[in-house]
Write a structure and sequence with these properties.
This protein has about 1000 residues and is an alpha+beta fold. The chain is built from 20 helices and 42 strands.
């Protein structure tokens, strides 16, 4: 006899089918007989034999019952692994043999796209439009629907005759179907002149055409069609009507039809647009003045393109809050709507601003549990300050703050808390001053009298229970209970109980203001990992991905571990998208396949950038004019071009070409990056070559050719170590000083230097820190053993700290110290400290001064100078100390800075001095101080920075007012005459990012 159950039928239907297909006599034919054998066809099943044995309620040597067979079918179907099951029962050796004839289900695996179209749409958009989700059962009937959606997406993006078909690749090992959509589109169509229907009396067809912004820039004709461009074009037309007070205008794109022009080139499409200007809606403000932009931001009829009482009332409320926030605390706003001839509607908002006030005082009474600082830092109301000249106040903010305080108390067990507020006009008799008083009736704090956990049978969560906030004797709050509930669910989820649920309830405790708390846990079934499967890899080596898996077969199915694996894959930097899912999520099986479907990032990426430095910088013309050794005000534009080849040979390694071109620097480097070198998760390595032609120190031009190797150790989240070796050849040219006077520092040299760099970064925001510390120590050794022609030790340390002073102020400070002593000085040179310093070539010396070190100097103008020309020579020691007080200046995005910089570049460590006076024009080893004021404007890429500094004791020096040729001539004749010069007291700097 045979029982047949077809794909995707419900369990009840299958059982009914079983009963109805077999006559009662046939069903009873083997009833009560011994089961001799249980077999499966095909022999290879989607479930392991051991798991099938657990599922089936029948086994050899048991008694045959038709009800047991029905239960077996039901359980097999419940796993979700079977599409079709047939059961054959036959007489075998004096008993009955049962054979399950099965057909496996299929699940969606990788969904990919093969196409040569240019974006948009992207491959991700096409996959999303298909509607196939990773890991869910595969329904072939959805393929035609998916292709229709993809064609619609392509048509919306200007591909009017796309060919879309699919390819299916079945993976029997994991029951997955790889779906590939093969797309051929031809050229993208361009817009043609829109055909406008409707009322064009307000905007002509030409004006509407121009408003779409579909025309090409600087060239005749129209741009290519894209979905976003079409949408924005219609929005631009609607905005054009809105600017003409036609708020009720409707603009509809009826069709975008391909034209048959018979001409060569890209196809064209004619947009058919219907416009209805609607009546004029004139929104005016009476009794006060605001900008049109402010009016649009506060009155929602502009955004909603309709007029109704609710929107007008909301506009009145918004305007009232706007005026109250600007000191008109008694402001009242009403609106009047009237319709006049030709359907024109006038809406007048009538503002009665009242007297101008200042919110000067805020007091909170009744608080015992929380201090004032804790409460006030959560409030929106702010008394007048340098940042808020009239304070920040409105009735809406006051009521919001009442609820904020109450929520804070409730979260800490004060279930009966009551918060009220009142305002006082003309506070302390001063007309226009306002004060707000909050009164808190805390009530009693509720505590947990008893904690009961019910339902922990399969998992021991004793440690988790001990970590809960809601312990016996502790404060009771629904906020803590909700947190504890999530903690319990997370612990179960980490151990494979994906369907665990936690409910809680309370009963009054034995004492007043106490509760008995109970958590009721439904653990559900524990699930484990069957296999971890990665799909979508084309170039990447599978082993590179598998090493990042935190889950292994047999592990509990943990959502946290799945997410950690996904994060590690993203951290490789070579994948554009990593989708994760559980295969057959609704199937009732103990073991699940975990899927990671990976989309590899573009292997090549190109980025460009433009910038400029605006300050007192090197003149760049020192050979023909030595008159300005201190630099001159100027602008140095910059252009950068970077190209990266990701995932080289599928190893996760990358090659990057970086280049920079400016009036002060020409730079190009190639870097080879190896993540997780030697399979060590905390170590990365880089190899690089560099060419650098720099003239940012106007004393000389340095040309550097360098090769470097570096190992990076990610010691912890905040600590990174860099171990590197650099071998470079540095040449000096375009000297602004006589090389005969300083032969050692002017020569070209080879430098081989090994170094290590310690970095500790605990700042809250590296771009704009408000608290934390930042430490670096860089130690290097150049010696002949490394192939270096000059020998020296370099130590450079930096310590920066950031402190919050109250809620608004930040005190930032930074100290830098560096020393660079030379050794193995060439024979014939007296080894005094000064001459050892001179043995270090110019490009290897410390240079400083400028926006990031000492703002009392122009860029790289600190330290020793040539006695004849006054040009900077650098030094072998440095000390800088910077202090800033950062504070709000205006609004939320503009901050101010008061700063004091101290420090200098010194000829040697023995010459480092903290004295503040310059002894003579040849003395540069003293401490220069500068004070100043700066402005910071917050942007997404960091604050725009403008600093104005006043140098208190800038150095004086002797300069040579002539050309380089004249310098050489007078030096030979010993007739050079220098003039006394001085670094300007005032310096300014404009750049992006904080000074430190």
């Amino acid at each position: 006899m045979r029982l047949v159950r077809h794909s995707y039928a419900t369990t009840i239907l299958a059982l009914c089918l079983f009963a109805s297909c077999l006559p009662a006599r046939a069903q009873m034919q083997f009833e009560g007989q011994r089961i001799v054998s249980v077999a499966f066809v095909p022999e290879h099943q989607p479930l392991p034999t051991s798991e099938i044995a657990k599922i089936l309620p029948i086994a050899p040597n048991q008694t045959y019952h038709a009800s047991a067979v029905r239960a077996a079918i039901e359980r097999l179907y419940a796993t979700g692994r079977y599409q079709d099951i047939q059961v054959d029962a036959s007489e075998v050796g004096g008993g009955v043999g049962i054979t399950f004839i099965t057909r496996s289900s299929w699940f969606v695996g990788h969904v990919g796209v093969e196409s040569d179209i240019s974006q948009p749409p992207s491959a991700g958009q096409i996959v999303s439009a298909s509607g196939f989700d990773l890991g869910v059962p595969f329904d072939p009937g959805q393929l035609s629907i998916a292709e229709t959606r993809i064609r619609k997406l392509l048509t919306d993006n200007g591909y009017f005759s796309p060919e879309v078909y699919h390819q299916l690749d079945y993976d029997t090992a994991y029951q997955q179907v790889r779906i590939t959509f093969v797309i051929s589109t031809g050229k993208r169509a361009r817009y043609d002149t829109p055909k406008i229907t409707g009322d064009t009396s307000v905007l002509t067809a030409t004006q509407i055409d121009k408003a779409t912004d579909w025309h090409r820039f600087l060239f005749p004709g129209y741009r290519g069609i894209t979905q976003n461009r079409t949408r924005s074009g219609i929005d631009h037309i609607r905005l054009k009507y809105q600017n003409a007070n036609r708020l009720l205008a409707t603009v509809t794109l009826d069709s975008l039809d391909k034209e048959d022009t018979g001409k060569k080139g890209p196809p064209r499409a004619e947009p058919h647009i219907t416009v209805d200007p609607g009546a004029i809606v004139d929104v005016e403000l009476q009794g006060a003045k605001v900008s049109r932009r402010t009016l649009k931001e506060n009155v929602p009829v502009f955004e909603e393109h309709t007029v109704d009482a609710d929107l007008l009332t909301e506009g009145a409320s918004n305007l009232r809050d706007y005026f109250q926030a600007r000191g008109y605390f008694d402001a009242e706003v009403e609106f009047k709507q009237q319709e006049i001839r030709n359907g024109k509607t006038e809406i007048d908002y009538i503002v009665t601003p009242g007297a101008h006030h200042r919110f000067v005082y805020l007091q909170i009474d009744g608080n015992k549990y929380f201090d004032l600082k804790t409460l006030r830092e959560r409030l929106f109301l702010i008394p007048k300050s340098f940042e808020f000249r009239n304070g920040r106040y409105s009735d809406a903010l006051r009521k919001r703050d009442e609820e904020t305080i109450a929520d804070l108390y409730r979260a800490n067990g004060f279930r009966d808390v009551k918060v009220t507020s009142r305002t006082v006009d003309d506070y302390k008799g001063k007309k226009g001053d306002e004060a707000v008083f909050f009164t808190i009736d805390e009530g009693s704090q509720y505590k947990v009298a008893a904690l009961q956990i019910i339902g922990t049978h399969k998992l021991d969560i004793a440690k988790t229970i001990d970590s809960l906030n809601s312990q016996t004797g502790q404060v009771f709050s629904e906020f803590d209970v909700a947190t504890d509930r999530e903690t319990i669910i997370a612990e179960y989820g980490k151990n494979g109980f994906q369907n665990a649920t936690v409910e809680w309830d309370t009963q009054p405790g034995p004492l007043p203001h106490t509760v008995d708390l109970r958590f009721v846990i439904d653990e559900g079934d524990q699930q484990f990992v069957r296999q971890v499967i990665a799909t979508g890899l084309e170039t990447t080596r599978p082993g590179l991905v598998q090493k990042r898996f935190d889950l292994k077969p047999g592990d509990p199915l943990s959502q946290a571990a799945m997410t950690d694996t996904q994060r590690k894959l993203y951290d490789l930097g070579i994948f554009a998208q990593v989708n994760m899912a559980i295969q057959n999520p609704d199937g009732e099986e103990d073991q699940k396949n975990v899927l990671y479907d990976i989309e590899e990032a573009r292997r090549y990426s190109i980025t460009t950038g433009f910038g400029a430095e605006f300050a007192r910088i090197g003149s760049g013309n020192a050979l023909t004019d030595l008159a300005e050794p201190g630099g001159a005000t100027g602008v140095s534009p910059r252009v950068t071009l970077d190209m990266t080849r990701l995932n080289l040979l599928g190893t996760g390694q990358s090659v990057t070409l970086q280049s920079r071109l400016s009036t002060l620097q020409k730079r190009a480097s190639i870097t080879y990056f190896i993540p997780r070198v030697f399979n060590l998760t905390k170590f990365d390595a880089t190899f690089s070559i560099l060419y650098d032609d720099t003239h940012d120190v106007n004393t000389f031009r340095a040309i550097r050719r360098e090769a470097a190797a570096q190992v990076i150790e990610h010691f912890s989240k905040s600590i990174t170590m860099f171990y590197r070796f650099n071998y470079r050849k540095v040449g000096v040219s375009d000297l602004a000083i006589n090389p005969l006077l300083v032969p050692l520092i002017a020569q070209s040299v080879r430098v081989g230097i090994g170094s290590f760099n310690f970095v500790q970064d605990r700042r809250d925001d590296p771009i704009d820190p408000h608290k934390g510390i930042y430490n670096t120590v860089d130690v290097g050794l150049a010696t002949k053993a490394f192939g270096s022609q000059t020998s020296f030790v370099r130590v450079l340390a930096r310590n920066a700290t950031y402190y919050r002073l109250g809620s608004k102020l930040v005190l930032a400070r930074e100290t830098q110290f560096g020393v660079e002593p030379a050794f193995n000085v060439p024979p014939g040179t007296e080894q005094t400290t000064a001459e050892q310093a001179d043995a270090i070539p110019l490009p290897e010396r410390f240079f400083g001064g400028g926006g990031n070190t000492q703002r009392g100097f122009p860029q790289n103008q600190a330290g020793p100078r040539d006695f004849t020309t006054g040009f900077p020579l650098g030094g072998s020691a440095l000390f800088f100390n910077n202090t800033e007080l950062r504070f709000p200046l205006y609004g939320a995005n503009i901050n101010g800075v008061l700063f004091e910089d101290a420090g200098n570049i010194y000829s040697s460590i023995s010459q480092l001095s903290f004295r503040t006076d310059q002894r003579n024009n040849e003395d540069f080893n003293y401490m220069v101080h500068a004070a100043g004021f700066g402005v910071r404007y917050r942007t997404p890429v960091g604050p725009l920075r403008f600093d104005l500094a006043y140098s208190i004791n800038p150095p004086k020096y002797r300069g040579f007012p002539g050309s380089y040729v004249q310098l050489v001539q007078c030096s030979e004749a010993n007739t050079c005459q220098a003039s006394e010069q001085e670094i300007s007291h005032f310096q300014f700097f404009f750049s992006i990012g904080q000074a430190f």
